[in-house]
């Protein structure tokens, strides 16, 4: 997609399995499709947001009801599985999807949204007003991460 193209993504709630065509190539490339299933995906409080350009799903993000005792996050939600198809990076789609997810999380009366941010994505979340907390840590097979959070 041309880097100068500016367009609006349409965000819709989708099922966990509907995220796989984006989760798989972006977050679990070369690994079995079963690795796209995350713990908690099917819980009633979990929701998944898809970002569509016309009918094409190009971005996904999932939100889980999850406090974090180490950092005293209560009434909190966790963002996982944030992914934009490679050829659609840099058009503001990731940002649009996180912002629409934040609005839905707020409606559930959460006060904090947090994530385990890949080191390569820290700048993306910082740009959206998230802060790093605690030391860097390793998630096996995925890499180094920081916990990041925002009061919403
Ligand atoms: C990280 C990711 C979701 C960003 O999505 P994107 O659609 O390319 O990002 P956007 O175009 O919405 O970027 C929004 C802003 O963040 C900035 N930004 C985006 N990615 C960045 C990065 N990796 N580091 C620093 N800044 C970044 C952009 O420059 C833009 O800044 P602006 O608003 O000042 O113009 C996407 O690159 C991706 O899917 N990466 C691979 C998977 C991944 O790392 N997911 C996160 C796991 S924790």
UniProtKB/TrEMBL annotation:
This is GCN5-related N-acetyltransferase. Residues 6-152 form the N-acetyltransferase domain. It holds the Pfam family Acetyltransf_1. It comes from Cellulophaga algicola (strain DSM 14237 / IC166 / ACAM 630). GO terms for molecular function: acyltransferase activity, transferring groups other than amino-acyl groups.
């Amino acid at each position: 997609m041309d880097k100068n193209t500016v367009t609006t993504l349409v965000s819709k709630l989708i099922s966990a399995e509907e995220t796989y065509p984006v989760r798989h190539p972006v977050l679990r490339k070369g690994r079995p499709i079963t690795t796209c299933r995350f713990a908690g995906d099917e819980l009633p409080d979990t929701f998944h947001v898809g970002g569509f350009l016309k009918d094409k799903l190009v971005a996904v993000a999932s939100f889980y009801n999850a406090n974090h005792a180490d950092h005293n996050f209560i009434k909190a939600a966790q963002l996982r599985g944030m992914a934009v198809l490679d050829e659609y990076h840099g058009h503001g789609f990731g940002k649009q999807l996180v912002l629409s997810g934040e609005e839905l999380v707020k409606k559930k009366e959460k006060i904090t949204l947090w994530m385990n941010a890949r080191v390569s994505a820290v700048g993306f979340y910082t740009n959206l007003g998230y802060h790093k907390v605690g030391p860097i840590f390793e998630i096996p097979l995925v890499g180094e991460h920081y916990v990041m959070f925002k009061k919403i």
